[in-house]
Automatic annotation (TrEMBL):
<dbReference type="GO" id="GO:0005737">
    <property type="term" value="C:cytoplasm"/>
</dbReference>
<dbReference type="GO" id="GO:0006564">
    <property type="term" value="P:L-serine biosynthetic process"/>
</dbReference>
<keyword id="KW-0479">Metal-binding</keyword>
<protein>
    <recommendedName>
        <fullName>Phosphoserine phosphatase</fullName>
        <ecNumber>3.1.3.3</ecNumber>
    </recommendedName>
</protein>
<dbReference type="InterPro" id="IPR004469">
    <property type="entry name" value="PSP"/>
</dbReference>
<dbReference type="InterPro" id="IPR023214">
    <property type="entry name" value="HAD_sf"/>
</dbReference>
<feature type="active site" description="Proton donor">
    <location>
        <position position="81"/>
    </location>
</feature>
<feature type="active site" description="Nucleophile">
    <location>
        <position position="79"/>
    </location>
</feature>
<dbReference type="GO" id="GO:0036424">
    <property type="term" value="F:L-phosphoserine phosphatase activity"/>
</dbReference>
<dbReference type="Pfam" id="PF12710">
    <property type="entry name" value="HAD"/>
</dbReference>
<keyword id="KW-0460">Magnesium</keyword>
<dbReference type="GO" id="GO:0000287">
    <property type="term" value="F:magnesium ion binding"/>
</dbReference>
<comment type="pathway">
    <text>Amino-acid biosynthesis; L-serine biosynthesis; L-serine from 3-phospho-D-glycerate: step 3/3.</text>
</comment>
<dbReference type="InterPro" id="IPR036412">
    <property type="entry name" value="HAD-like_sf"/>
</dbReference>
<keyword id="KW-0378">Hydrolase</keyword>
<comment type="similarity">
    <text>Belongs to the HAD-like hydrolase superfamily. SerB family.</text>
</comment>
<keyword id="KW-0028">Amino-acid biosynthesis</keyword>
Length: 287
């Protein structure tokens, strides 16, 4: 048994669309998790034309199909940049260093899988050499904003016994702050090397990239006594693909096109509360 999930921006999910899809797919009775925002209905099997239909309504809503069994996950494993926050921290630091455009280009290519992650990170951090350490606090205060729905996502999963881990290819100087603001149980990221109050242009080794995120999935699930199938992973970049592919529910959130193409579950319209709808939590149960 499967569940077909439809999620749109608040107030923009047309009931007529839900009914037409349910009829076309031969689905069961539709349930509204949030009126005019999120609905779902059961299916006996995944329709042969699912991808074609998904593409045809992509401008209106996110259509995903998930197994009905084991939908509610016991762990959230989340990327930070452009996932739990709306920015890429290294790009914001680069703006302060006067090399914003150059670094943003490298970041975009790395997240799209066009560049080696380790090499791209090393190259970008080198351009930050000489920035005062105080710039980190300035960037957090003035440039970083949380992705909508993050606090609700974590609070709801915690209320149902979930464990929440933040695993980033960014920097601990940011994950520690974001983790505290959102209530993550643990955070892991790369370390910016600082000496005499200034960034040295170097990053601590080994660099936390794609493989390290997979390792975190294995390690944290083992610590919690659960399987990888019990994990919901979310991210947007090529370095997230490993954990997204292995987790029981791997969601590409507002992801790069090349990343979406490799992920079964995609969210482009909703905010982070979409991850609760995918698990079957109605809005009335959101904390």
């Amino acid at each position: 048994m499967f569940i077909a999930s439809l999620i749109a921006k608040p107030g923009q999910l047309d009931p007529a669309l839900v009914d037409s899809l349910r009829n076309a797919f031969g689905g069961g009775v539709a349930t509204w998790l949030s009126m005019d925002e999120a609905a779902e209905f059961p299916l006996e099997a995944i329709p042969a034309n699912f991808e074609e239909v998904r593409a045809s309504i992509a401008a209106q809503a996110d259509l995903n199909i998930v197994p009905a069994e084991g939908r509610r996950k016991k762990m959230l494993l989340a990327d930070m940049d452009s996932t739990m926050i709306q920015q890429e921290c290294i790009d914001e630091l680069a703006e302060e260093a006067g090399v914003g455009a150059h670094v943003k280009d490298i970041t975009a290519r790395a997240m799209n899988g066009e560049l080696d992650f380790d090499g791209a990170l090393t190259e970008r951090v080198a351009l930050l050499k000489g920035l005062p350490e105080s710039v980190i606090d300035k960037v957090v205060a003035e440039r970083i904003t949380l992705m909508p729905g993050g606090k609700t996502l974590l609070a709801t999963m915690h209320a149902h016994g979930g464990y929440c881990a933040l695993v980033s290819g960014g920097f601990t100087a940011f994950t520690q702050r974001v983790s505290g603001l959102l209530g993550f149980d643990v955070n892991r990221a790369n370390t910016l090397i600082i000496k005499d109050g200034e960034l040295t242009g170097e990053v601590g080794r080994p660099i936390l990239g794609r493989e390290a995120k997979i390792q975190a999935l294995k390690e944290f699930s083992a610590q919690q006594g659960i399987t990888e199938a019990d994990v919901l992973a979310v991210g947007d970049g090529a370095n997230d693909l490993g954990m997204l592919g292995r987790a029981g529910m791997g969601v590409a959130l507002h992801a790069k096109p090349s990343v979406q193409a490799q992920c079964d579950l995609r969210v482009n319209h909703g905010d982070l509360t979409a991850l609760l709808y995918l698990q079957g939590y109605p809005r009335a149960d959101h904390v």
